[in-house]
Amino acid sequence: MLVTGTDTEVGKTVVTAAVAAAAQAAGLRVAVVKPGQTGTATGEPSDVDSVTRLAAPLTGRTLASFPDPLAPLTAARVAELEPLELDRVIDAVREEVDKHDLVLVEGAGGLLVPMGLRPSGEAWTVADLAVALGAPAVVVARAGLGTLNHTALTLEALERRAVPAGVVIGAWPVEPELVHWTNLGELVPKLLGALPTGAGAMDPGVFRRSAPGWLTPALHGVLDDWRAWAEEI
Q: Which entry of 12, 34, 99, 190 is annotated as an active-site residue?
């Protein structure tokens, strides 16, 4: 399963952790693979480190790291490092598929961010990886203004590639406004979950216990009634 987003900083890593936690609570063996981690020079924890802290998946792997906080292909060029090869990523993911019940692959930025190079010299994206793996996608989206357009564009790009996809809201606000509620109503047909703002800062034990309640059964959660969820919120 590919985890991508409508943009950067929409909550992909925390959503990846939530799906991993919910799946493990359901008894599944989970691996998380990050093909390209950028921004390592900032000293911040890597995305796999963050997922491991929150969800403790059975396996966590980062395939390539680059110092600058840029798109992976650009970051590789700036650092004069070898770019990610698509076949290498495919092989690494398939290796984990053989050992686990669920493999989550977290992208970088949005769906069409250049990740690396093919042997032909052509850039490849998370969308290309989803097609190559035959994997469904989770699109992490914002709750506020602008999300409907960005989400629709991402879903359309996936649909044109015959990649099944659903949406998770990365950070539902503590005090939602009209725009959040109207966006929720529009997204519900494709909505697979909604995480509360600040979920990534929770105590890991609380996070793991809470994660199934943020996700629908399609993502191994227990959220099955958006109307009841909205009334509770």
A: 34
